[in-house]
Amino acid sequence: MALFAAKGRVGAFDRQTYGCWGGGVGLGLGNCYEDFPGGIEGLCRFLADGNKLSEEGRGIGKEM
Fold first, then answer.
1. Shortest CA distance to 23 belongs to which of 49, 1, 45?
2. pLDDT-based confidence at 10, cuts 50/70/90?
3. Are 41 and 55 in contact (CB under 8 A)?
4. pLDDT > 80? residue 3
5. Residue 51: how many CB atoms within 10 A of its CB?
6. What is the distance between the alpha carbons of residues 43 and 35, in angstroms, rounded to a whole number?
7. Nearest to residue 40, comparing CAs of 21, 23, 13?
8. What is the reported pTM?
9. 11-41 pLDDT, tens per residue?
10. What is the DSSP string of the chain?
11. What is d(CA 1, CA 3) in angstroms, rounded to the nearest whole number?
């Protein structure tokens, strides 16, 4: 939403520049969570346990 609240300035986005995965979903660009490092499974693991508990999770954290 920061694109729309930028002090009267014009903002633009597309499928490659929407910002974050949730923002892409909110803008109607489909299930952008599939592009999360590690896919939807990586996102679920991150939300449930964070990245510190597994080597794969720490790797995903470095990608972000």
1. 1
2. confident
3. no
4. no
5. 19
6. 10
7. 21
8. 0.65
9. 778 888 888 888 889 889 999 999 988 889 8
10. -GGGGSTT------TTSS-SHHHHHHTT---GGGGSTTHHHHHHHHHHH-STTSHHHHHHHHH-
11. 5
Question: What is the rounded CA–CA span in Å between residue 16 and residue 18?
Answer: 6
Contacts of 25 (CB under 8 A, 6+ apart): 31, 32, 33
Token pair listed for 9: 């300035």
Are 33 and 43 in contact, with CB atoms under 8 Å apart? Answer: yes
Query: Tokens standing for 23?
Result: 């923002």
